[in-house]
Amino acid sequence: MPCAQCPLRPLPGFKPLREGELAFISRRKVGQRRIEPGGSIVAEGGAAAHVFTLLSGWAFRFKTMTDGRRQIMSFLLPGDILGLQAELLEATAHGVEALTEVSLCAFARDTVWSVYRVHPPLALDLTWLAAHGERLVDDAMLSVGRRTAVESVAALLVSLFKRAESAGLREGDSVPFPLTQTHVADALGLSVVHTNRTMQRLRRMGLVRIGDGRLAVGDLRSLRRIAQYWEQPAPVRPLF
Amino acid sequence: MPCAQCPLRPLPGFKPLREGELAFISRRKVGQRRIEPGGSIVAEGGAAAHVFTLLSGWAFRFKTMTDGRRQIMSFLLPGDILGLQAELLEATAHGVEALTEVSLCAFARDTVWSVYRVHPPLALDLTWLAAHGERLVDDAMLSVGRRTAVESVAALLVSLFKRAESAGLREGDSVPFPLTQTHVADALGLSVVHTNRTMQRLRRMGLVRIGDGRLAVGDLRSLRRIAQYWEQPAPVRPLF
DNA sequence: CGTTGATTTGAGTAAGATCAAGTCGGGTGG
DNA sequence: CCACCCGACTTGATCTTACTCAAATCAACG
């Protein structure tokens, strides 16, 4: 898939590139990788790998403890970048796993450095993406630390709905929802059982519908109120 | 305090600057701010302010919910940078508050952008700092989500001890510890009461000593084992 | 001294964990 | 076609961690 025909870039949520940047990016792209659902994209604790852009599909960043407890730090949707942290800090502190079938654009090893040298505005965009990623984690942390179970499930669903929407994944009143309840539990620091009961509660209240791998939000306003969620995503974001 | 005489830069944990960078940084520094303990450095939800480097003292990043629940996302120590997120995303999603008396180096409004244009390697360093900050939050998230109370208190104490040490704050076997138990609770998503009992437990086990605003670690190895903490901080880090 | 904020202790409670069976649905092999 | 398997989802019962409420102690400070 040549960058010039990137299906993401024309979406309203993404910022257009500047002069010469498209050519630059195209030149640095060394290939595309396809990974099956459940496959590992970056091994936990591995050495620096490539930098990737998620072209299609969903993934998540996580850490595991020796006894198997797992915490999901964030979910990755099309347009998100991955491997920046590993590249800069020379090692990964977390793993990345595919949630659905995933396509990745892989960039040459020294891409990050050459962006900084050759295309400063694009480098700033890269940092923007890093900052945006941290903001998502910050919000997730509020969920895990201070929200009750209903509140955090609500917050997660709103956040994923919004993000999926701006990645162009909304169809009708629903977006794809490839997470199992185990993923939700691991993202929110809850047990699967409690996650299940909590999601049922939201369903019975008529606030969300989940089924067939899709999520529909019945009453966004109420859901937001329950979550005390008011982060609004940036109107446009850079896409590397 | 002129940058040429910065007390942090000579510390073994910090990376030396390259040709011309010191002059550049000096030129962009527009002043220094002093803030008393408990003072607000960045208001929650405020517009983009300056970018600051923490010259001395401790601070923390946090979010509050309407009903007063608070989550501390991370603690800031000398050498840490703050305001990057706000500058890039044009608004803060969190507040920053001083824990002790704090001195900040303030930089001119468009500093970030000019770094990218004029000193690419320094820009890369800036991104390094952002990535490093996110890594800390990732680890905190593991605590809040998946560690038990003892485990997360242990992890927090080890992490702060190490960071304080590499900021040159260790004296004998102890480092400053300006947090109240309320701060610890808000960082770990626990109640103050439970935090208190948990810290007593660690004290009675002889693993830590806390008093007079200082923290001494009696048995780092055991503390680490309890925390299942094995992140090692980078050997050297950039300082803006 | 009196006030204020931090820490500590005790008692009762609740949110959420754990354990143990189910059910349901889609895929596989006989 | 059907038996069976496996993973995801559900349900019920019980238990525990950590929360809440309330009050006491303690230290710093004006």
Task: Give a structural overview.
- The structure is a homodimer of 240-residue chains.
- Chain A is α+β, with helices and mostly antiparallel strands and 240 residues long.
- Chain A has 2 domains: 3-121, Jelly Rolls; 140-227, Orthogonal Bundle (Arc Repressor Mutant, subunit A), CATH 1.10.10.
- Chain A has 8 helices and 11 strands.
- The first copy, chain A, has helices at 21-28, 84-89, 111-118, 120-146, 149-166, 181-188, 192-204, 220-227, and strands at residues 29-35, 40-42, 51-56, 59-64, 70-76, 81-82, 95-98, 102-107, 174-176, 208-211, 214-217.
- In chain A, the strands form 3 sheets. A 4-stranded antiparallel sheet of chain A has the order 1-8-3-6. In chain A, strands 2-7-4-5 form a 4-stranded antiparallel sheet. A 3-stranded antiparallel sheet of chain A has the order 9-11-10.
- In chain A, strand 4 and strand 5 form a beta hairpin.
- At the A-B interface, strand 5, helix 2, helix 3 and helix 4 of A face strand 5, helix 2, helix 3 and helix 4 of B.
- The structure holds a DNA duplex (30 and 30 nucleotides).
Largest interface: A-B, 46 and 47 residues
Uncertain segments of chain A are none
- What is the third-level CATH name, the topology of the largest domain in chain A? Jelly Rolls
The average pLDDT score of chain A comes to 94
Question: In CATH, what is the homologous superfamily of the largest domain in chain A?
Answer: Jelly Rolls
Separate helix tally of chain A? 8
User: What kind of sheet is the major sheet of chain A?
Assistant: 4 strands, antiparallel
Structural class given helices, strands, pairing of chain A? alpha+beta
Bin the strand percentage of chain A: 15-25%
What is the CATH class of the largest domain in chain A?
Mainly Beta
Distance between the termini of chain A: 15 Å
CATH architecture label name of the largest domain in chain A: Sandwich
Radius of gyration from the alpha-carbon trace of chain A, in angstroms: 18 Å
Tell how many strands the DSSP assignment of chain A holds: 11
